[in-house]
Amino acid sequence: CRPDIRAAEDPRFSRSIQDGFMKILITNDDSVYAPGIKALAAALSKVAQIAVVAPDRERSAVSHALTLHHPLRAVKIAPGRYSVDGTPTDCVNLGIHSLLDFHPDLVFSGINRGANLGDDVTYSGTVAAAMEATLMGIPAVAISLASLDDAADYANAAVFAARLAPLVMKNGLPRGTFLNVNVPASGNPLACPPLVTVQGKRRYEGTIVDKVDPRGRSYYWIGAADLDFHDVEGSDFAAVKRGHISITPLHLDMTNHQSIPLLNSWTF
Ligand code: MN
């Protein structure tokens, strides 16, 4: 985008909460020790009372998995900061039902290492944590940085999260709806107007590595190739590609309402 300095100074983004302090539960799928969640917690602690409940190791791409077949352990690693040997969805459940001494007004998940765009939201543990909060009736935001670089800078995404939290708090979100936010890793995304987008579309190609291990057995490895997206105008991918922060409202009703008349025309 062409940076607009005024956008960065928009008073809507600098408003602080006057009527009481927000309470925010923070989680992710990259682990409680990931740089993204540390940056998010630091930024949100300036505008809210926070608690962090996150997996003890990376759980990326576990989607909405819930642990049912073994007990979960939570370790308090610092005041208001818990490590859980479970999934992001487990963390939201444990946080809200057992660990926290407050009921959160908001749940933030992230800042994920790598974008969560288009069809990838269906695999994402980061997005699923926001889904879980939404199922519980708590407004939620999933936020991701579009970089897999270990040296990536989470500062811009963290600043935006601290601007977004009071806006979500003030305006609320439509029923069953949460926000999927993706922040470009290069340029100055805070100086570009954020774009409200639709979920984009992946270009799926052969992405399975098929080789033989040192003991002579075949192995397969999913997702090794560099995947691309269809550059659809108005999509999350298009916004991030052009340097804008993308905000996609997602909802949990997966019914395709337009298909109902079609299916009703079938003779079952
Ligand atoms: Mn992740």
Summarize the entry for a quick read.
This protein is an alpha/beta fold. The protein is built from eight helices and 13 strands. The strands form three sheets. Strands 3-4-2-1-5-6-7-13-8 form a nine-stranded mixed beta sheet. It has a two-stranded antiparallel ribbon with strand order 9-12. A two-stranded antiparallel sheet has the order 10-11.
What does this structure look like?
With 268 residues, the chain is of the alpha/beta class. It has 8 helices and 13 strands. It has helices spanning 5-8, 11-14, 35-44, 88-99, 125-135, 155-171, 236-241, 259-264, and strands at 22-27, 48-55, 74-78, 81-84, 106-113, 140-145, 177-183, 195-196, 201-203, 208-212, 218-222, 228-230, 246-251. The longest helix has 17 residues, at 155-171. Mean pLDDT is 92; it is low at 7-19.
Helix content: 25-40%
Bound small molecules, by name, code or SMILES, are: manganese (II) ion
Strand content: 25-35%
| Order of H and E elements | HHEHEEEHEHEHEEEEEEHEH
Overall morphology: globular
Tell me the Rg in angstroms. 19 Å
How many helices? The count is 8
Lay out the secondary structure.
Elements: H1 5-8, H2 11-14, E1 22-27, H3 35-44, E2 48-55, E3 74-78, E4 81-84, H4 88-99, E5 106-113, H5 125-135, E6 140-145, H6 155-171, E7 177-183, E8 195-196, E9 201-203, E10 208-212, E11 218-222, E12 228-230, H7 236-241, E13 246-251, H8 259-264
Parallel strand pairs: 1-2, 1-5, 2-4, 5-6, 6-7, 8-13
Antiparallel strand pairs: 3-4, 7-13, 9-12, 10-11
Bound molecules: manganese (II) ion.
